[in-house]
Amino acid sequence: MPSEAPNHVLEFPGGYTRSVGPVIGRFLTELRDGRLVGVRTAGGKVLVPPLEYDPADGEAVTDEFVEVGPAGTVRTWSWVSRPLKTHPLDRPFAWAMVRMDGADTDLLHALDMGVFEEGADAPKTLKTGMRVRPKWRAERAGAIGDIECFRPEITMITSPTRLEYHLEPGRAMSRFLEGISEGKILGHRCPACGEVIVPMKGLCARDGVATTEEVELPHTGTVTTFAVNNLPDPRAPEVPFVSAYVLLDGAGVPMLGLVSGIPADQVREGMRVKAAWRPREEWGRTMANIKWFEPLDEPDAPYDAIKDFV
Amino acid sequence: MRDVAVVAFVQTEHSAQPTGFSDIELLAPVITGIKEKTGLNRFGFTCSGSNDYLEGRPFAFVSALETVGAWPPISESHVEMDAAWALYEAWVQLQHGEIDTALVYGFGKSTQNHLREVLTQQLDPYYLAPLGLDQVSLAALQARAYMERSGAKEDDLRAVAARSRASGRDNPFAVHLPEPEDAPYDVAPLRPYDIAPITDGAAAIVLAAGDKARDLCDRPAWIRGIDHRTEAHLPGVRDLTRSEAARLAGEKADAAGVEVAELHAQFSHEELILREALGLGEDVTVNPSGGALSANPMMAAGLVRIGEAAARIHDGSASRTLGHASSGPCLQQNLVCVLSGDN
Asked: Would you give the end-to-end CA distance of chain B in angstroms?
């Protein structure tokens, strides 16, 4: 049909009145009370939703109604990525055949898998065999829509994790951050091996000796190794982002930083980079003063220059 | 049993776009055409298949009778189903022996409505229709159930669509559709090419008995078996992974040994389900017309399947063929008509 507004509407004003009879009526009445029931056939099967007759042989069902559920199993499903305006949900959802526990036939209803953008593919968790339960409307009228939809059973939770601290950076790190707050990158030279340790910790991890001799390092270095991160982090909300070890020129240990200014898939070991600082007025006693490292227009460092750090 | 044959078949050049024709304007050339083809102006019985919901007004089939010329009053009936079921009713009438000819026709326009929502009206009014459950969503449920049971993959569905479209492009009456292209799902697991095109069209068949059939047609397509079966109304009580109704109808109509089968599969997975139910092997040519996946005029597409199967007999290219029609959600109802050139 053309997309413009219809020029003809077929509608029964106020809706069509239908009597439901004792079997469907009982089901709908129980539904209004928040219960799902089936009817038992003469052969002992439980039909959900109930029918007046056994679809297998046409024989009248018994007058025994059986509560089923509260959960059921998905027998087959389809995924609606662009709901029609007549559909029960206005965002992507599944249709599912649900075999309620205790039933021998399937109930067809909508299955809400959560919030998805229009056009989204079905989530991987949507599977035949998955366990689901009805989501009941608070105000029920005695109609199949008293079940708003089905929802998956709980298989996972999100645990809150938060502890609060007041950390002492230590004297060496305090001095390092003081340097950072002035736009300088400081390190310590080890009296034993002669390597420059940055950020300094007040001792050389290799030799186990205290370090005190301060060295100011240039803001350029070489990527020794890196990782492409696809989970956003407060410091790097845009994904993918690249975190890398950068061996500053003259340093004996690499330091951790972000790499930007280049597509993630072009970052490489041996790439030459320089620190990109935030505007001076934003500086504090924090490593965040260095936004990230950016590529230098230089040839890559030879493997030998970083081989001890890869 | 009285020998009854399909002696003539006429269809429109089906359109996936609005044609500007009203229903009766669409139908009239088909009725005129089949009168010319048979040289008959009056028929012993007339039966039509159409659906008022497609037009959005009651008794649409009554105005369609104007195309037939129903005065003085004719013996007439109508089914609110695909016209293949009108053909069945006409065949039963012919079996009674009172008449020798029958006109059967069906027509439908889907470009003027939202077909998948119109078909919600055929569902159970207590449990399903209130949910707004639509035709394509239901078919997709069956597609997944079938694939998970049989191991068929989405590529198998795509192959059905590709073959149907290729055949359809050779059929001047079908909608000419391109090779299936990569496309996002419509309702998963169905992609747009797995779904029959929205189509406007009409078709007519003339049945005749015994010598009358021999007079009207050089090579009548004799109905050697015809049967229709239905499954339960609620999809939830059915085994959607197979079509028991088609299997039984095929058995009763003696589907074994056909060379060509025209299957009314409105979704690509339905062809796979029907092939299995009817026991059609690799040696059977399925839907040389392109099938409903190349043109699906509602209420006529099942009759077209019988017409196409008969046309293979009329033109001498096959000696035993099968026409199949379906109706209702997820292949609920199935009709099988087996035709033979041998008398």
From this structure: 13
Q: Which residues of chain B have pLDDT under 70?
A: 343
Distances B231 to B102, B239, B258 between C-alpha atoms, Å: 29, 10, 25
Do the interacting molecules here have an ipTM over 0.90? no
φ/ψ of A184, rounded to 5, equals -115, 145
Shortest alpha-carbon distance between residue B200 and chain A (Å): 11
Q: CB of A29 within 8 Å of any CB in chain B?
A: no
CA B341 to chain centre: 21
Q: How many CB atoms sit inside 10 A of residue A136's CB?
A: 14
Q: Report how far residue A180's alpha carbon sits from residue A171's, in angstroms, rounded to the nearest whole number.
A: 14
Partner-chain contact B137 A80, CB within 8 Å: yes
Tokens 């006429």 -> residue: B10
Report the C-alpha gap between A95 and A103 in whole angstroms.
19
Greater pLDDT, B315 or A56: B315
> pLDDT value at position A19?
94
pLDDT tens-digit map of A25-49: 999 999 999 999 999 999 999 999 9
Q: Is B243 helix (H, G, I), strand (E, B) or coil?
A: coil
B11 DSSP β-pair partners: B203
Instruction: Give the largest Cα separation in chain B, rounded.
Output: 58
> If phi over 0 gives left and psi between -120 and 50 gives alpha, with beta otherwise, what is residue A293?
beta
Q: How far apart are CA B326 and CA B250, in angstroms?
A: 13
CB A82 within 8 A of CB A60: no
The CA–CA distances, whole Å, from A233 to A237, A243, A284, B197 equal 5, 11, 20, 47
In A, minimum Cα distance to B142 occurs at A76
The partner residue sitting opposite A20, judged by closest CB among B126, B184, B188, is B126
Collapse the DSSP code of A306 into the 3-class scheme (helix H, G, I; strand E, B; otherwise coil) and give the result: helix
Give pLDDT tens digits for B209-219: 999 999 999 99
